[in-house]
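Problem: given the chain below (270 residues), write out its structure.
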Amino acid sequence: MEIQLKISFIKSGNLQIVAVGDGAPTSRFCFSFLFAFIFEPRFDCVYADFMLKYLRMNKKTATEVASRLLEEYPNAKPALKFNSSYELLVAVILSAQCTDERVNKVTEKLFAVANTPQDMINLGVENLEKYIFSCGLYRSKATHIISLSERLVKDYGGEVPSTLKELSTLDGVGRKTANVVYSVAFGGNAIAVDTHVFRVSARIGLANGKTPTETEKILMKKIPEEMWSGLHHALIYHGRRVCVARSPKCEECVIRELCEKKGVKDRKKV
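Solution.
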């Protein structure tokens, strides 16, 4: 993909820059510059900064970013502990607005007494609520888990379905949960967009979606399918270890010269 910039002066002291081409932003950007400053050698820095800040990352660069992250985190895997597709499904549901560490503590005790759909049904909603209370949203989560367990016993012989379409029909299973289970438990290609993936993708310029669903669609268009599942885990690792929310460690980042660093202060120090 190639983006061209059409540069022209409008009014007095204003510079109009219009990006044209596939992947270029549709809005026009107008900046106030002194004419003298524009012709200084430092203008190249301003131009580069504009390119980084406003132009969307193309497929070639996005693939390079994904490749570097996958190479940096070759052993990235889910932090949730599980021994079956059903345990994974339950754990992912419990992880909504809860840390993986907390979920692992809860499921260690829960799965000791109920680690199959039928066992969970026998446990019942009220007893399940007691086990998962510390995960937050425990009432709705307990209701969903019992409901989907009943569905699994009734329609799937107690087994977790292996397709995205079927997973998405289970009570309490949203797009992210379905993608995680499909990818991790069944080896399917999918990009699950959680908090880390959504935040890091936006900051580095991989995807500027306003919602997790939009971000997922953008990533699927930019990144080769065989990288989807691995990139999900790599972005989570990167978000936790390097591209942290408040004080990202840009000097340690393997994609620092490709990153758009949206929302990051003191970019010149990187």
